[in-house]
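User: quick one - fold this with zinc ion bound?
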Amino acid sequence: MLKKEKLAIIRRWYPNAITTIDNINRLIDFAEEKLELEPTAIMLADSICSDDVNSIQYPARAQEFLGPFKMGGLDGFPFTGLTGMVAMASHIPDNGAALITYGPHIGITKTGDIGEIHRMGQSANTGCCGASRSALERLMNNQIEPGHTSEIDYQMNTIEQILYASKERILAANTPLHEATEVIYEAIDHRINELVAKTDFHCRYVILVGNILINSDSDMGSFTSIKRFDIINVESHKTENHLHDFD
Ligand SMILES: [Zn+2]
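Assistant: Sure. Structure tokens for the protein plus zinc ion:
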């Protein structure tokens, strides 16, 4: 399938989606042209779902950056918390930058079905994101107990509580899984802001890139729908929104 044909399928749900490979290429170009930083001066940190598909579809060129420092757990929530953010911040080159990319993921098959993908070697499709799908199913069946988290399934319970807090909004939507993914994006974005605010950085820039990561079938690859591109100048504490350069 041609790239433009793949994009046409994904853009029915996410109109500004591009391939994740093109997304990495434009991030590297932006850092070189606008910030005059080589990839080796930039610590990549990601907060994306632990799902193996995100490792399989991770763009090879991301290796030009330092890292990645892995902050995410189920559906990309930054479960490594403040300790993770502070540790990552202490590893950034002195005159360099942190590039923090984050967001939930969702599957879209080549036939345009949302919430699942075809994985290598399997006959049937499976859920993507499996965690958000399970949480949504429990939400719809009134199986989420407000405030409940357990030690054995803490991350999953946290995703459940995030959805529970927006129950009416999610269940009123035409496509609840799509809406649940937006809700999880907002929760991740909010938490990333909190963690960055509580962390001392000693580099030049902190680049915050919020996305919805869209996985597709094994022969389709992955796609990125950008939602936020902010550059914090560490010395001046000023934040510049550069989303217009990408959207
Ligand atoms: Zn997932």
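One thing worth noting: The chain has a mean pLDDT of 97.
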